[in-house]
Amino acid sequence: MSRSTAIRRVITGHDANNIAKILHDDVASNARHSASGSSSTLIWCTDATPADIAVGEQAEDMGARKIGTPPPPNGTRFAVLDFPPGSVSPMHRTETVDYIVVISGKLEMDMDDSTVALAAGDVMVQRGTNHSWANRSTEPARAAFVLIDARPLGIGHAVPRDGVASKTRS
Questions:
Q1: CA spacing 20 to 30 A to 16: which of 37, 38, 49, 142?
Q2: Got the DSSP string for 92-138?
Q3: What is the pLDDT of residues 96-145, one digit of tens each?
Q4: How far apart are the C-alpha atoms of 137 and 156, rounded to whole Å?
Q5: Strands 132-134 and 96-104, how do they pair?
Q6: pLDDT tens sequence across 112-126
Q7: Predicted model pTM
Q8: Residue spans of alpha helices (H) in 8-167
Q9: How far apart are alpha carbons 118 and 109 in whole angstroms?
Q10: What CA–CA distance (Å, rounded) separates 118 from 141?
């Protein structure tokens, strides 16, 4: 698997007559690439709860937005990440609940004092912990991530949302 491995993205909605239809059937192209060689392709995001699913074919393509690692406030971020062999992300923390599904390969999540190994088919719920992702295998790995905005924990320094880092509370 390489950076060029395409991710087909199919987005549904309704036309003006309330008929269900496909709004987008394309290759997801909103990708970011890190220094470690991993890539993150945004599939969709939301910026409110409950999310806007209004009828109409002119809805914003929420997979085309440029957002950071955390989702928009009160929103979600759905991305597929590719990890080449040997890649290790920096230690970080987001103030989110993350649902992770390993699609292929093997990943390890390092935390402050422990590591957990995940393989294809494994799922994880990551709840605002300090962590780093590593592919210590010889094969590429791919995982789907859904990040859901959460209340700040008030510990450590989280990845900035909207350009403002959440800092430790006294």
A1: 49
A2: B--SEEEEEEEEESEEEEE-SS-EEEEETT-EEEEES--BEEE--SS
A3: 999 999 999 999 999 999 999 999 999 999 999 999 999 999 999 999 99
A4: 30
A5: unpaired
A6: 999 999 999 999 999
A7: 0.89
A8: none
A9: 8
A10: 10
- Judge contact between 85 and 138, C-beta under 8 A: yes
State how far the Cα of 114 lies from the Cα of 13, in Å rounded to an integer: 43
Q: How far apart are CA 30 and CA 61, in angstroms?
A: 11
Confidence label for 162 from pLDDT (cuts 50, 70 and 90): low
Which token pair is 55?
Answer: 């009828």
- Please state which of the ranges 22-26, 40-44, 101-105, 153-157 shows the lowest mean pLDDT: 153-157
Q: What is the mean pLDDT of the chain?
A: 90
Say which residue the tokens 């109409």 belong to: 56
Cα-based angle 74, 122, 87 (whole degrees, multiple of 5): 80
Exposure string of 18-42, with b = 16+ CB inside 10 Å and e = fewer, is eeeeeeeeeebebeeeeebbbbbbb
ω before 85 within 30° of 0 (cis)?
A: no
Distances (CA, A) of 118 to 109, 111, 124, 142: 8, 14, 8, 11
